[in-house]
Records
---
Amino acid sequence: QVQLVESGGGLVQPGGSLTLSCAASDSSIGAMGWFRQAPGKQRELAAAITYSGKTNYAEAVKGRFTISRDNAKNTAYLQMNNLQPEDTAVYFCNVDYIYAWGSKSVWGQGTQVTVSS
């Protein structure tokens, strides 16, 4: 099964920026996405990107976050600008792992993003 390695989380002041990375151990992946889960809340989609580069964003992050991917490196990125305290959450990478009989959703371990002054 594909393994995901996430990096780039941390503490940032309001208005600051962070870039998250998600590297997959296998190239048999389709769509990649970033979800986030704040304390006491359900996990929600932040942004997603198809293999061909079509993107989808949650309304709350549109205009501030940019998702991209490098298919040669099996890696997705989430550039987050103008971060606000409400963006504080654990961010999880998710990929569609494609195998002979179908596909399955695979999750990373999560990386903490804290926006605070």
Note: The first strand starts at residue 4 and ends at 7.
---
Amino acid sequence: QVQLVESGGGLVQAGGSLRLSCAASGIIFEIYAMNWYRQAPGKQRELVASISTSSSTNYVNSVKGRFTISRDNAKNTVYLQMNSLRPEDTAVYYCNTEMPARRRGYWGQGTQVTVSS
């Protein structure tokens, strides 16, 4: 059974930092790309950052230079380091991986990030 469990969200002032973690189980972690999405109230879910199996990364323009995605295959965990947080980063953040062979993706339960101005 595939499980993705996020942690590390919270309330932080603008300019602050948070590190999100996503622990995966039930998968051979190192063979899957991993993604972080976020969804703010009243908005569509958006892809924030991705990391491939070779640890190449991609980011949405709004977080480039502020957020860093990384992975630790020994711990089956993907991270999102968020610096210089802004109120517009407030959202529920979700961990995701896609499995084309199973024709589906898997999602964590989400972790709330709130940035106060």
Note: The chain is about 0% helix and 55% strand.
